Amino acid sequence: MTETTRIKRLFRDAIRRGTGRAHLLMRAHPEVNFSADILKAACTNYAYDPQCEDSRGAYVLELVQLLEPRSRREKTISQILTALVATREASWGLTQLFDMAGQLAEKGNAGARAAFYQRYKLGKSADYAYDGEWEFVRLDGLDALLHVAGVRGCELADDSEEWESDYLIELAQKISPDINIRVALEEAAITNEYIARYLKAVQVDWQSIRKLNSKPKISALKSIQQFIEAPESCYLSS
């Protein structure tokens, strides 16, 4: 085994674990080309539990910035954006690619913004998974939310009983504290039936939560008493 191969194996292990050793190896060995493993880590979310762990997009982009020379760094970014547009199936890797493109776009990378928009629009076609809502709203705030609300509302036309979480509204409000996001949606809903459907579905969800929270709490003793008196009408969790 050559020294370069050994170093690359150490780097591959570090980047899959998401540790800082990957940074140290790159700084200590600028002569080694780590771009292939960085690209794979960009396209593959190596998190143990991606649903609970935050995206590793920022971590991977830090490693991209350590690539030398600059041409190698730019090539890797281009490959990441190409991978975003080319990825069809839903996966945590796709979500991470959206996250990375969004971060690059926020820093003024016009190519990243173009790739982000291109892949998001493809998500509305039959051959591509729909993804990137959170990253879209994080990137463009209210304008993105209005667009997403329209897409969601169109889908709700096929299922009028479906409900929607308000997490995107909360995100847009956090990004734009000077704008009343709910009022802006209500105004847009006057002339856009799809946004109106989306807003109605969100309100249904909010009303359900309020109704659930308004139910009187039953003490443990009272619950046990009810179970003794009428066991068929009660359920005790283990």
Walk me through what this model shows.
This protein is an all-alpha fold and 238 residues long. It is built from 12 helices and no strands. It is globular.
Properties at a glance:
238 residues; mainly alpha; globular
Walk me through the topology:
Elements: H1 3-17, H2 21-28, H3 35-43, H4 57-65, H5 70-86, H6 92-106, H7 110-122, H8 133-156, H9 167-175, H10 181-189, H11 193-214, H12 220-229
Tally of contiguous helical segments? 12
Number of structural units classed as domains: 2
Question: How would you classify the quaternary structure?
Answer: single chain
Proportion of residues in helical segments: 55-70%
Distance between the termini: 55 Å
* Strand residues, percent: under 5%
Outline the biggest β-sheet. Answer: none
Total beta strand runs: 0
- Listing every helix as H and every strand as E from the N terminus to the C terminus, the arrangement reads HHHHHHHHHHHH
Q: Summarize model confidence as the mean pLDDT.
A: 88
Shape: globular
Radius of gyration: 24 Å
Q: What is this entry, summarized?
A:
The chain has twelve helices and no strands.
